[in-house]
Amino acid sequence: MQRKMGTRWILGCFCAMWCVCVEAQDENRIPAKGLAVLSKGDAFQPYEFTRHAVGEKDILLEILYVGLCHTDIHAVREDFGKSHYPMVPGHEIVGQVIEIGKEVTKFQMGDYVGVGCMVNACRECSSCRDHQEQFCRKGTIYTYNSVDVYHHHEITQGGYATNLVVSEAFALKIPKNADLKRVAPLLCAGITTYSPIRFSQVQKGDRVGVAGFGGVGHMAVQYAAKLGAEVIVFDITEEKRADALRLGAKRYVNVLEEKNLAELDDSFDFLLSTVSANYDPMMYVRMLKRGGEMAIVGLPSHTEINIVSLVTQANRKIYGSLIGGIQETQEMLDFSIANGIYPEVEMIPATPESLEQAYQNILAGKVKFRYVMDMKTMKQ
Fold first, then answer.
1. What does the pLDDT look like over 295-316, one tens digit per residue?
2. Which residues contact 255 (CB under 8 A, 6 or more apart)?
């Protein structure tokens, strides 16, 4: 009987201590305001919520700018699986440090900081040890719409908001000389294209094709051109031709004019597909030299590869690529800013109306490259 009572007393003390800790954390939660969709199909509206408390190795950012990514729209619409609502999207975040945990060593007050698609991972598995946190074997914690197992399983909320609490390990240093208004899309569109270009070891003299010249594709052109490659862009409209040539492409091919395609078979060292509409990937596979590589980063809703065609186009390599780890993202950021490589952006105010219109323009293909929302314009 005494043994049972002792066990109950210990458990009771433990539960009481746990409740005190949780209550203390709740008291220290960070109030935030953002733009959210409350359920599938809803329009954006102002939304007040809280972030988890600033931990010993965390930083609190005032968000200055956030990029709009097509992936945000997929998440809001549940195009690729069940989403969590209410949802504050946004994973291309530029902010300034306004509070630091007592064990933070990487940042100081006032530093400019970037946060991309991830905010945590186990940091212990083989992928994390290899600086590939996006493939964490225990599950990557994404910047929004993700169950944060490291913070009481709360749902992460993104950058369409006034602030963000994040571990210093998942925050990126932004040089003070950076063009802050144009940095945000580097944290997704930039690393999404930089990573496969580096993985395939694109170098001076290589012939590189970029399929799709939009918010992602126009970054690939700049990186490949800077490395000294001969870049050829593929798209379905004449409206982008001048911009492609201005940003470093040697040639622009309208794929709707089939006469332009035949001569290009067996001629590319590397091809990057950023296409988000349904298309035939084998058209580009045929353009690879034997031993050439094709990376796919675009996310069409329904595209198939004909296995027979794949076999007949033997000795060509196709792979998918998913953003990049924190170390590589910092490398990309430093390389981009040092070489003046930025996305082409259109600034919009942080209002539900402007955000809804921007989403419609993205879906209709009316945005030239990338939208960036100025979070300082959001009503407090």
1. 999 988 777 888 888 898 899 9
2. 234, 235, 236, 261, 283
**How large is the C-alpha radius of gyration of the chain?**
23
CA distance 224 to 246: 14
Confidence class of residue 161 from pLDDT cuts 50, 70 and 90?
very high
- Residue 316, SS3 per DSSP: coil
18-36 burial: b if 16+ Cβ within 10 Å, else e: eeeeeeeeeeeebebbbbb
- The two tokens of residue 358 are 């921007």
Tens of pLDDT, residue by residue over 311-325, are 988 999 999 999 999
Q: Residue type for 338, please?
A: A
List of residues 6+ apart from 259 with CB closer than 8 A: none
State the DSSP code for 244: H
pLDDT tens digits, one per residue of 272-283: 999 988 899 999
C-alpha separations of 39 from 68, 77, 91, 216 in Å = 19, 9, 19, 28
CB 341 within 8 A of CB 223: yes
DSSP 94: E
CB under 8 Å to 208, separation ≥6 — which residues?
197, 202, 224, 229, 230, 231, 232, 268, 269, 270, 271, 272
Q: Each residue of 112-133: pLDDT tens digit?
A: 999 999 999 999 999 999 999 9
Q: Does the pTM of the predicted model rise above 0.85? A: yes
CA 7 from chain center: how many Å? 49
Q: Is 287 exposed, middle or buried (0-12, 13-18, 19+ CB in 10 A)?
A: buried
Query: What are 163's strand-pairing partners?
Result: 62
